[in-house]
Amino acid sequence: MIIKELQVTSINIIPLETELMTIHIGLIPAIEIDNIYVITVITDSITTARKILESKVNPLQNMFIPLASTIKSFLSKDGKNKNSLLVLPQKSQMAKYKLIDNQVKANACILTLPNKELHLFNKKKECNNILCKWQILFANSLKKGHYFLNFEDEKQRVIKPIYAKGGLWLPIIEFTNSLCVCFTYITTRHAPIGEYRQRFLSYLPTSCPCSEAEI
Predict the structure, then answer these.
(1) How many degrees, rounded to 5, is the angle at CA 63 between CA 55 and CA 20?
(2) Closest Cα partner for 209 from 197, 199, 201?
(3) Helix axes 46-53, 61-77, angle to 10 degrees
């Protein structure tokens, strides 16, 4: 049966921190119960289990230390006290896991905050805002220069810069140094073409070799 149910509202917290915090909150009332000598923590997260048993310094140390202190106080309380950690895969057929899983689902708490307050949502929103500002600055001719060549996709839409996986241009040139130099010359219009000569080398011919364009 459920001894204690607690709902905690947290903002900007990752799933692993939630798991560690939940285990810690669950251990506290269990320790306070009289004649309890064995506490078994059941989790389906192998990552969480490793973090609990990990002794080296890590970013989640502030979550691990209170949890370890709680376990230590229980073990030192009585020589008969034992604590075990049981890691089971999701949808495990073990009787204990099925019992706990059914109880948790039957008493699931309804979130009091909308999804927009979640850490991952905030992170994505902040990233999108930065990317949007970046694209606006990039589209401003005063920022990228008057002679920057815009590239279009198959639907004739100007390709906007992105930060993921090398952007939209670098994968095309396959990170070849010589090709990257040529591509940069063309993009910034510093290649030895008529328009470049007109700006910097006016004594050289600027007409197109095809004879159909002035520059």
Answers:
(1) 95
(2) 197
(3) 70
Token output for 90 = 């999701």
Contact 62, 48 (CB under 8 A): no
> Which candidate, 56, 80, 79, places its Cα nearest to that of 68?
56
Q: How far apart are CA 111 and CA 105, in angstroms?
A: 14
Q: Count Cα neighbours of 63 within 13 Å in the Cβ-side half-sphere.
A: 21
Question: Is-contact 125 132, C-beta < 8 A?
Answer: no
Instruction: Report which of 43, 38, 39 is spatially closest to residue 87, judged by C-alpha positions.
Output: 43
pLDDT digits (tens, 9 = 90+) for 51-78: 776 767 766 677 777 777 888 888 888 8
Distance in angstroms (rounded) separating the CA atoms of residues 5 and 25: 10
Pair of tokens at residue 13:
């917290």
Q: Which of 155, 189, 127 is nearest to 135 (CA)?
A: 127
The whole model's pTM is what? 0.40
DSSP state of 35: T
Q: Are strands 82-87 and 38-43 parallel, antiparallel or unpaired?
A: parallel
Spatial separation of the C-alpha atoms in residues 203 and 105, rounded to whole Å = 80
The DSSP code for 39 is E
